[in-house]
Amino acid sequence: MISRIPPCITSPHNPKVKLAQRLRDSKTRRKLERFLIDGEQEILAAHAAGVELECVFADSLDGAPPPAWLTGLEPLYQPVTRQILSRISYGDRQDAPVAIAVSRKLSIADLDLHAPKLLLVLDRTEKPGNIGACLRSAAACGVDAVVLTNPTCELFNPNAIRASRGAIFKIPIAHATVEELLDACAAWKIPVCTARVDAQHQLWECEFQPAVAVVFGNEANGLGEEWDVAQVLPYRIPMSSSTDSLNLSISAAVTLYEAVRQQAEFDPRLKRV
């Protein structure tokens, strides 16, 4: 039995519409601990992952039933006109549904991990598109978790969600300081390898099996001196002399797939892809 469908919102002054517009601002998202999800695929991925949704705006005529894809989310359905949807949508996705979701933030201590084999660590990442792309690669490689150390970028930025193609909701993501991350890896007895352009060892010389945490630094400045400890092994991705660096998300993808390859050869039970 479908609950009563609320009236279609036609006014830009409606409180729900005004809230959604305010949530396009990062300071408001942090203050209210709410964020927006754009797109059917992303909304469904968030719902499947247990993200708390408060409202789903979708283009519809007044009184029309919820779209078929909203099955299970009917009580959250809020029909709006196409003009209203274009006001709260992000970028060129003016016809895409939009959901208001409750933010969640895990510490590394909250991760339900007992013996992780593959962790991706992003340190002080600035660009939300890079975070999203890295999360997409991490999900494709079946990582156990992603840890953001001292992030300067908001995790649920719309660019991050969009670039992740919904992967941001499919894998555990935690925040930590560098010290907390290193302590956790020591407790889990897994080595930590950091990507550095000036490292002596090449990627292919590293042992990523049976377990590893791979770390990538800030896009402009790389990793700080707090990573220069005995517990950490630096490595570099070999490149032609005509190129001195790779995009962060590409570097992460190359490294993760090498780790996946090594771990599958070491123990077929660790095959992830």
UniProtKB/TrEMBL annotation:
Transmembrane segments: none annotated. Residues 118-257 form the tRNA/rRNA methyltransferase SpoU type domain. Belongs to the class IV-like SAM-binding methyltransferase superfamily. RNA methyltransferase TrmH family. It comes from Aureliella helgolandensis. Keywords: Methyltransferase, Transferase. Signal peptide: none annotated. Residues 14-93 form the MRM3-like substrate binding domain. The gene is tsnR. This is 23S rRNA (Adenosine(1067)-2'-O)-methyltransferase. It comes from the Bacteria. It holds the Pfam family MRM3-like_sub_bind. Its EC number is 2.1.1.230. GO terms for molecular function: 23S rRNA (adenosine(1067)-2'-O)-methyltransferase activity; RNA binding.
